[in-house]
Amino acid sequence: MPMCGDSAMMWAWPPMPGRTWLDAASAFLGMWMAMMGAMMLPAVAPALWRYRRALSPMAIHRAGALVLLAGAAYFAMWWAAGIAVYLAGVAVTALRIGVPESAPAMPYATAAMVMAAGALQSSRWKARRLACCRLMSMPATGKATATNAAGKRREDMGKAIRDGCRLGLQCIQSCAGLTVALMAVGIMDPYAMVAATAAVALERLSPPAWGAASRIGRAIMVLGLFLMARAIVA
To answer: How far apart are the first and last CA of the chain?
Structure first.
């Protein structure tokens, strides 16, 4: 719902007339998870495939259930991240409504967010997180500690959940720069969503020597400079 003032940061959705905050949050989280499902599939699919291939012979008969469980845990972490993003959007919207004088500063804040996101995307910290995501597998084998079939089943299920959550946390950290940039330019803008999806796929699937993540970060910083210049001349 557009807000007064020329600011792409006003993407969060307050409740429409006759609706509650819970309705607004549910709608946002539904669209957030649909978006994350499309964006993160290139990242999680190879890891889930490696997990499936690493299953022990004793667990192979329930491979499908374990893979689904690991994938559900992965996306549960993104669902939790969506709650944090929505709360941040609500806070920005409340500031915009409660302090109308902040409207002229919003375009500058948007540009600053984009430039900061680009710097984070190009940083060594990002490179380390991305390396962890690219190399991380979810091995399903290991020392068996259970002494019966039921105990082994619970052990495998717990490991699938832990490994899925671990991979989800790594991906959330790796995508922090892109997420901030997407929040700034409009998190439900279809062109921004397509660009972010392409960026995630490129940095995860291209050869490491290409330095795709760093190039994407520099492009984001150029976009931030453009937004800052536009705010200055407006």
So the answer is: 23
pLDDT at position 14, please?
A: 65
CA distance 127 to 36: 21
Please check whether residue 104 is in contact with residue 231, taking contact to mean a CB–CB distance below 8 angstroms: no
Q: Is the pTM of this model over 0.90?
A: no
DSSP state of 3: -
10-residue mean pLDDT profile of the chain (234 residues): values are 44 66 85 85 79 68 82 93 88 78 84 94 90 62 54 80 88 91 81 86 77 92 94 86
- Residues shown for the chain: 234
Residue from 42, 40, 66 nearest 52 by CA: 66
Amino acid at 90: V
Residue found under tokens 């491979």: 63
One-letter identity of residue 75? F
HSE-up of 123 (CA within 13 Å, CB side)?
Answer: 16
Sign of CA dihedral 90, 95, 96, 102: negative
- CB burial of 153-183 (b: ≥16 within 10 Å; e: otherwise) equals bebbbebbbebbbbbbbbbbbbbbbbbbbbb
